Amino acid sequence: MQAQLDAYLEHLRTERQVSSHTLDGYRRDLERLLAFCEREQLQDWASLDTQRLRRLVARLHMDGQSSRSLARLLSATRGLYRYLVREGHCKHDPANGLTPPKGERRLPRTLDADRTAQLLDGAVEDDFIARRDQAMLELFYSSGLRLSELVGLDLDGLDLPAGLVRVQGKGNKTRELPLGRLAREALEQWLPLRALTRPADGAVFVSQQGRRIGPRAVQVRVRQAGVRELGQHLHPHMLRHSFASHMLESSQDLRAVQELLGHADIATTQIYTHLDFQHLANVYDKAHPRAKRKDSAE
Q: Residue 198 is part of a domain; what is its CATH number?
């Protein structure tokens, strides 16, 4: 069973070319599934049935696993069994028809427009680190990029005169996105400093040694900007969420926001409609005479 699992993970890496982050997630979930099968004394993957898998999901849920984590486990299991069926190792998918327990869907945290402006509109030192970080922040918010899309961006993906950026998203799908004026200006100020490092490849964002900057380094720089400018925790996906929320709030065009974010399923994008409604509800509560609560002293 371990050998077949290893073969599937190698298939994901080489043929499907999933990201290292996605691959690590699949590995963790499927190794947990394998450990369960070993405790159940199953000899092969074909011996795992729906009843046993349902019992595993129920046990993990009782142990505090979130609905999202369980959905990811079931998704990984379905992917594994599609591979096993295709390779002739078994004839069924025990996850077929199984759904995770419903859990409360947490709304993503965002910055409002004023806080975003506070983050981006401050004075920027004219040096390597400051210009690079400003360009990264502007690009995250301007085009709604994922962290992996930003660190993987190459120079040939930028068309500054046309105001476009081309990124490779999930599933190696390429999409072309508009680039705002301020993001273009930040990139124009950054790129000459980048060139001084004589980068080894075409990476847009590099370290002072000319090496492509990694995801962890970007997360650290974004977090530091949040503390410095806003006095709060900030991560790259919060800027992507803010981009999506502000676009939907202004345009009310869910399909367009779906295309900009690169979501395969519009249901993923629909969470931002809840954010928009929450914003409207807050405005209503504060502004409508019949919505205002009486002061506790009255």
A: 1.10.443.10
Q: 212 and 138: one domain?
A: yes
146 catalytic residue (yes or no): yes
Q: End-to-end distance of the chain based on CA atoms, in angstroms? A: 70
Tell me the Ramachandran region of residue 144: left when phi exceeds 0, alpha when psi lies from -120 to 50, beta otherwise: left
263 is known as an active-site residue: yes
Consecutive H or E run containing 195: helix 181-195
Catalytic residue among 184, 240, 241, 246: 240
Residues 49 and 37 sit within 8 Å (Cβ to Cβ): no
Distance CA 163, CA 181 (A): 8
141 is catalytic: no
Establish whether 255 is a catalytic residue: no
pTM over 0.90: no
Contact 18, 28 (CB under 8 A): no
Number of structural domains found in the chain: 2
User: Which among 89, 166, 170, 211 is annotated as catalytic?
Assistant: 170
- pLDDT tens digits for range 32-89: 999 999 999 998 999 999 999 998 988 888 888 888 888 889 999 999 999 999 999 9
